[in-house]
């Protein structure tokens, strides 16, 4: 029996868009007023005369239950492209708050602040000038001292095999600084302020407890230098000899401010310059008062650095005699200075001892403070979640009481994840709800509109609908008529949004047919074809006159994309059956000359691309001149075979970081990067757009030139080998001074070139370039005397 096709308008009337759990609620919401549908221009549906028996409801029947798969667009329906980066609609509203700083007395505020963490109390100082004045006042100073020192530590003892608390140890007081008490608010600023005091842009996670500075990682990298570099380098030779003895140093590396280093220390460049200027002024005053020169004129920064390093190692020893010897060395060095310089040095050394005591106190208190802060943050997170849940519950109650949309819609609509809902603030009064109400209703209406398009955005095409554009327009007109399941008040919210979405709705594009790659063959036929072409490829390589010619020859995958070879390979009847081997071989012989000619063109293309890469990185030729180079340039005697064997013509492999001459790289590619098919990845090789075999970036060329210059090697000498550079350097290594983190250590020249190549490619992928590499020599390690077990 033939069934009548239901028109889209009738389908829209009988479909629920708001996920009602029962049909009765939808009817009640949509048909409360008999003239509501006529108001929007829709004729009422005629009641059917035939009353069929109600269908028995079968348990598990999918037609009676909502299926989440129905939310997706149907086949051939309209599709709305949503922007994932679309920002949610926000609204500003004012919440009346009470400033307790102006209402409560200071005694009450201090009692309340006693329950806060020191970092929380410090954050209050940034709210307003009033709060900053209160927090910094002398009245709050005892509270600051109590919060920074922490609670008393319980003292325990063992009694009857149990640990029992017998007393409480008072917390250790804050050490003095320059003979005066430390200002607690300044100490809190040092500990809890998150802004870099140098650049005032980046965040600081932990202060430097040795320098008493808040510096970000970038500023530490730029301003901290090792004391060994100050003593050995030529940059700081003009400093006063006593500079390193008076300036503050830190054992914390620039990028690791948690764990100190016992062997090295760093100083700030600015502190070096300031201390040196002060010492020079004192030196000038002493020279003006005395006609004789002092002993420090014979000293240098390098000698002082060596003496201080030796004294540091002695004081670090386990023997008391060694420690006394280290202190005596420092005292002898101090006695060599002029009177004013000596007095200044002794004053700074005394201040260093106080700095060390305060730094140890910060180190001991920092871990308990952070542990307490983590516990307070966890409690705050729980409290915020409770406030958010209470806010969501209150908003849901408002939405249900107003009844514009059914309660079942709230279960699926994404209103609860909106930022205005997720705020950790209670709905204290009706002002907040009135402010956010329109935004939330628009979010729900948008969800209902998208559901309408997803469920009824398709229309069965009839004989009269010959034009797709007319059919789509008629469908959009039908969707703008109020469905039965949406109330009149809800439709006022849904219709404007639905009209806006339908402007951007369109028919889904048909997926593009996959490109056919070669003839459609069975697996056995494909294996026969590949075996035949692999055999022909090996025979072609055997005919080449030299071993070097095999390296220049294309790999198997590149061989298959040669025009003549590809034409034969794409032939669905060629070399697919072993019984036709002789006939296929004869056909191959007819095209052999063309194949060898194309292999020769591949060799020229490889040499030309390598020449362009070398000239672009090692000469000042413009990009236009290099692009204009053709195969004729290879006939120039200056670019013969010896040119590609020079040290200045070494290149990198395009698929890895291997570095060497052109022939060595091509050999490496045949051995370690064999190409078994013309599909090395997602992109197919073609004869018109071959992949480059080698590359040479400007950063690698600069680093390679610097290494050759340090080794005193002629870069233009042909037949250069890697062993020549290794012998020239001997036991010396090289280092990349201005390289990224983890590359500044001493290493072999080959490892350094690979590191430069790796980081240069990573920078190019970020649309960036590296600074010109600064390469220096590193002398071999001096053999150290081994220590015995008991030493």
UniProtKB/TrEMBL annotation:
InterPro entries found in the cross-reference section: F-box-like_dom_sf, F-box_dom
Disordered: annotated segments: 1-78
Residues annotated as domain F-box: 104-147
Compositionally biased intervals (Basic residues): 43-58
Protein name: BY PROTMAP: gi|472583945|gb|EMS21561.1| F-box domain, cyclin-like domain containing protein [Rhodosporidium toruloides NP11] gi|647400416|emb|CDR45847.1| RHTO0S11e05556g1_1 [Rhodosporidium toruloides]
Species for this entry: Rhodotorula toruloides (Yeast)
Chain's gene name: FGENESH: predicted gene_3.216
